Structures are given as structure tokens and as C-alpha cells.
Amino acid sequence: MSRSYFFRSLLLIAVLAIGFISCTPTERDNSEEKGAGVPQQQEYTIEIKQMKFIPAEIIVHKGDKITFVNHDLVTHDITDDPGKTWTSSALPADESWSMTVTQSSNYYCTLHPTMKGKIAVE
Amino acid sequence: MDKILVTFFNNNFSNNKLNKMIMKKMTPAMMRSFAIAFALFTTTGPAMAQSNPSLTDPEVAHVAVVANQIDIGYADIAIKKSKDGEVVKFAETMKRDHTAVIEQAAALAKKLGVTPKDNAVSQKLLADADKTKKSLNGKSGKAFNKAYIDNEVAYHKAVIGAVEGLLIPETDNAELKQLLQNVVPALKAHLGHAEMVQKNYK
User: Are residue A7 and residue A54 in the same domain, yes or no?
Assistant: First the structure.
């Protein structure tokens, strides 16, 4: 066995050992407990007042929760624009509605089509 | 008479862009109603206007309720007569929203122990609304839809001008003033919606 062959073998064993240690169940369990690499669900509120969505544009992550609160005198809804793939249905004054974000969307109030907002997923 | 009213409006309402737009779209009947409303606030002289507004808060509340009732009346006609989905949806929104405003006004009046009081402005608004309703009831199909939505655009412009320029400044009670201020964004959203529908009938 040549000296160079011995050192190459030693190096390979060292690399394999480091890889094994870094992937032990204990380490993985600790990572999951700490939430490392798994984004926590963030919660956001969009207020509806003065016939506007405030803020009108919001940047969130997939899985985040958005709650719409209607502070206006009148009933509104929050509906995907233009596909209408999701909607809050009628949201009377002083009531709220929550959604979990799955993708970027433009949305509007079908009852008052000048009211528009945007959810951007980054 | 209408020439006199146009001159009156030019002299008193031509200082901003919104009121110029109101002038362009306002029907003679609306012009007469809001001219009377404006005159009631101004023709008593500056001193009187400041110390003794021509309309009391109960009268302002009555005008506000009547203005909402009038648009509900127009909406009822549209819901009954129109076959255009967009027109009907707009009318349903008008009925729902203006009913909500009346309920808020009624709740506030009850809280304040105030009874909205009938007055000359309310009576004039109702008299002119009756004429408009007769005109709308005499139309059908596309002509009705155009007349209804044109009237909604003009009516909301006129009401926004009257609420911002007359009713809010002359209201003493803070809660009634706040209610009127809260209604303005809804009126402007209605106007924007009406103009969107109106594009289909140009």
C-alpha cells in the first residue's frame, strides 16, 4: 500500500464520518424542535376602512395567515381577481375573515369593484 | 329658470374640479334641489350662517336619511326593471349600502335622543325624486339602463358635493359629523362603480 493511497483512504473515511455525524437523528430532531429551515406561519391583518384595503399590497410567505377585518359601515367581500378561485363571501360590518396564503393573488371587492388589493408571495 | 340656476351654480360651486363635473352631469331637477339646499345655508347672511345654521342637526339628519332613501327607491326600480346583470348588481349594492347607512343614522339618532326633523330641503329632494322615478318607470330595456346609471352618476356627484360642502360643515354634533364623514368614501366608491357600469352605455 503506497503512502498516497493510504492518505486518500484516510481522507475518504474522514469525509464520510463528517457526513454521517451531521445527519444523525439527534441532530435532525434538534433541528425540527428549533424550527430551523421550517418557516413559522406568520399572521397579518388587512383592515377594510374608508372603502380601502389597508395595506393595499402585502408581501408574505406561502402558508402565512391573513385576517381581513371590516371596519366600514357596509358589507364587503374579498375575492380573487380575475379568476374568482377563492372568496370570503359577504363580510358584514365589524366581522372578520381569515385565509391561509397558497399563492400570489390580486383581489377585489365584488360589491365595490373599485376596491382592490394584492398579495405577493416571496 | 334653469339658466338662472346654472348661473347660481357657476357663481357658488365652480371653485373646484368636482363641482364642475357635478355641473356637467346634474339634471335641472337636481340642480334646483341642491340650489335650495345651498341657498338655505347662505342667504341668511354671513353672521346668521355662522351663528344660526339654516338647518339644525335633526334637519341635517333628516336630509341625510332622505338622500339615502331616494337612492334605495331608484335601486328598487332598477332591480325590478333591468335585465342587465351589472346594473342589477350595482342596484343591489346601492340598496344594501344605503340601507346600512340609514340604520347607522337611526342608531345614532336613538343614542343622541334626536328625532330627524322634516324640512324644506328634504321635501324638495323627495319631490324631485318622484319626478325622476316617474321618468325611469316610463323607460325600458337599454334606454332604462342608461337613464338609471346616468342618474346614479349624477346623483352621487351631487350628493358628495352637498355632504362635503354643506352638511358636514354645518353639523354641530361631533358624532353626526363623523357619520357623514364616514359615508363620503362609500359615496365615492359608488360613484366609481356607477361610472364603470356607465361605460357600457356610452
Answer: no
